[in-house]
Amino acid sequence: QRRMFTNVEMDNSTGVAVIKMNSPPVNSLSLEFLTEFAINMEKLEMDRGCRGVILTSSVPRIFSAGLDITEMYGKTPEHCGAFWRAVQEMWLKLYGSSMITIAAINGSSPAGGCLMAISCDYRIMTDYPKYSIGLNETKLGIVAPFWFKDTMINCIGNRATEHSLQLGLQYNPPEALKVGLVDQLETEDKLMTTASSVMSQWLAIPDHARQITKSMMRKPIIDQLLRQREADVQNFVKFITKDSIQKSLQMYMEMLKQKKG
Ligand SMILES: CCCCCCCCCCCCC/C=C/C(=O)SCCNC(=O)CCNC(=O)[C@H](O)C(C)(C)COP(=O)(O)OP(=O)(O)OC[C@H]1O[C@@H](n2cnc3c(N)ncnc32)[C@H](O)[C@@H]1OP(=O)(O)O
């Protein structure tokens, strides 16, 4: 029996769907998770009654821990290639969506989790000091691909991205608000109602004008990946299967386990 990684609830009266990521313990983005997510996005995109999506998590304290590290460690080049195509597909569907996308970030959101959030149109984060968000790839000894970097530049600008990416910074909610990585903070109990009320403001704009404007802003980066999609896969496979990178990933996973013990 297939496992479900996300719950999708569509409200036909408002035209808004809520996607809840539900893959304990940390909503890590496995090949199966990413595939299911992209299919769900495509179904909603095709549904003429769906105009907006709120992305959130049903796992306590975690929005998403990012890419599933076990999908990149000790795997064949073929598996790594299939995994990376699924990462690309998730981003193409989310960043390129014509729907209004709002991230209700109710927990920590490192790396690929941050990418999902900054691929949305608007971000509201729970104001809890222990939560953090950011692209921390350099801390794992890996490099955020150009389309991660460009998505961040479009969100917070060039200088802040350069600083943030080189140091692999993780921001707490007030810092994330200050740098522009999130648009608004909210208490946990009001997060979803605030997300719905922000959605109503966005729904008041005529779809066609908003969609063309969104596409105008995002198309250049999307097209850049589409033009070199296969080369990007090969680049990833070559990089991630290097002994030195595998060693870094192994040490990072050990560090995560030790932190726990
Ligand atoms: C020459 C240059 C060329 C350039 C070419 C570029 C090519 C491309 C390069 C590659 C680019 C890759 C981009 C990568 C993006 C990513 O997303 S990598 C993943 C990054 N994620 C993280 O660093 C997060 C790590 N996790 C945490 O920090 C914490 O777990 C948490 C999310 C803050 C939650 O903490 P807590 O509640 O305390 O839970 P834990 O006890 O730490 O974890 C519970 C179990 O979950 C496991 N786990 C955690 N995160 C992951 C993960 N991302 N993947 C897989 N598994 C994960 C953790 O190990 C625990 O497991 P158990 O011990 O078995 O219970």
From TrEMBL:
Q: Which PROSITE patterns match?
A: ENOYL_COA_HYDRATASE
| Assigned GO CC terms | mitochondrial matrix
Cite the Pfam families for this sequence: ECH_1 (PF00378)
Q: A biological process (GO) annotation for this entry? A: fatty acid beta-oxidation
Read off the Gene3D superfamilies from this record: 2-enoyl-CoA Hydratase, Chain A, domain 1, 6.10.250.170
Protein task: Key enzyme of fatty acid beta-oxidation. Able to isomerize both 3-cis (3Z) and 3-trans (3E) double bonds into the 2-trans (2E) form in a range of enoyl-CoA species, with a preference for (3Z)-enoyl-CoAs over (3E)-enoyl-CoAs. The catalytic efficiency of this enzyme is not affected by the fatty acyl chain length.
Q: Which domain of life is it from?
A: Eukaryota
Part of which pathway?
Lipid metabolism; fatty acid beta-oxidation
Q: Where in the cell is it found?
A: Mitochondrion matrix
Q: Does the keyword Transit peptide apply?
A: yes
Q: Which CDD domains match?
A: crotonase-like
Keywords for the protein's UniProt record, in alphabetical order: Acetylation, Fatty acid metabolism, Isomerase, Lipid metabolism, Mitochondrion, Signal, Transit peptide
InterPro entries for this protein: ClpP/crotonase-like_dom_sf, Enoyl-CoA_hyd/isom_CS, Enoyl-CoA_hydra/iso
Name under which the protein is recorded? Enoyl-CoA delta isomerase 1, mitochondrial
